[in-house]
Amino acid sequence: MGLTVISGSGHRWRLTERIGSGAEGMVYAVEDPRPLVAKLVVRPPDRAAYRRRVERLVGQRREPRTVRLLAGSPVRVAWPMVPVRTAGDPGHRDQASGYVMRDMRQDFTPFVHLLSPAARVRVLPGATWATALAAAEALAVLLAELHAEGYVVGDLKPDNLWADGRGRVGVADVDSWQFTDGREVFPGRMRTPGYTAPERIGGTAPPDAASDDFVLAVLVHQLLMSGLHPFAGHPGDGGDYVSLDDNVLRGRCAVLDRTSVLLPRSAPPADLLPRRITELFRAAFGGKRPEAALWAERLAAERAPGRLAVCRVLPRHVHTVERPWCPWCDQKERGADSYPAVPAGEPDHTRGQPL
Ligand SMILES: [Zn+2]
Questions:
Q1: Quick one: 4-103 is in which CATH superfamily?
Q2: At a CB cut-off of 8 Å and minimum separation 6, what does 44 contact?
Q3: 112 C-alpha to center of ligand 1: Å?
Q4: Contact 38, 98 (CB under 8 A)
Q5: CA-wise closest residue to 39 among 212, 206, 173
Q6: pLDDT tens sequence across 210-269
Q7: Cα dihedral 262, 267, 271, 275 sign
Q8: Interatomic CA distance for residues 76 and 106, integer angstroms
Q9: Neighbours of 47 (CB within 10 A)
Q10: Ion ligand 1 residue ranges (Cβ < 5 Å)
């Protein structure tokens, strides 16, 4: 396709293929022996402000707080490494700006693959409810660490997240985060329907750690309930379904009130959730939002030895010991199996794996 990006010091990367696109920009593979990709934004609302934002993030890469976030393997955050722009006339209206970052595909698969039974079987065939629990904990730990270092994600959503078959989680699109640099605040502007705290829906309120914590609860619910959004469902009072955000604003949520929404019979049974986790969902969606660190602690407790049981009929059915019989078999009887047996010929990573 012939596009080249260039860094401030003159290093050039040839773009090979487009591998992703979002509301703000596009991500391209680049020609480089290292696993790198380039994110480019063609027409940001304020190009100079966007470039300054990226430059500051690149500068923060060496700060102790960021070094802490980038420690460990695999690296969980696709931090901007080098600001780049497309080669050519810097004043041209179509000139794109962005940055080079680590290619998260090296270690992870898109997070959405954990949320759909069909994608799970295809991409992460060994994943069970134990994997969902591990991913929920990893996400809560990551968010707690980001918040402790003064960062706010702002546009937390499955599309910005990555996961692997062991339930490890990564995050990209760092350029949309809200952060401070010296005295300057770089506000988060982005929001996504279905992944916005009620106080930010329809308004201009900036994100904060508490609005991230609301979305964390949504994502944990989706992970533990096989993709089911906590505010999904037609209004139980017979009114028209408008959107997830409308349900959020009206408090229509099966965890808060089972009669507030109508869900398909084949939805995962609500009582598959451990009691202490249900308590956190009720607090999160009822207005007393638990912080990410508390989620991390409670989710870790549910993964402790002896807390998980394996179904006697289907070994991919893993559930909390609090429920005496298998919730996934109950769901299967009602027409859907969130964790079906791995088709013949697929590697089954569940065998021999300790819980
Ligand atoms: Zn079962």
A1: Phosphorylase Kinase; domain 1 (3.30.200.20)
A2: 24, 50, 97
A3: 23
A4: yes
A5: 173
A6: 999 999 999 999 999 999 999 999 999 999 999 999 999 999 999 999 999 999 999 999
A7: negative
A8: 11
A9: 16
A10: 311, 314, 317, 326, 328-329
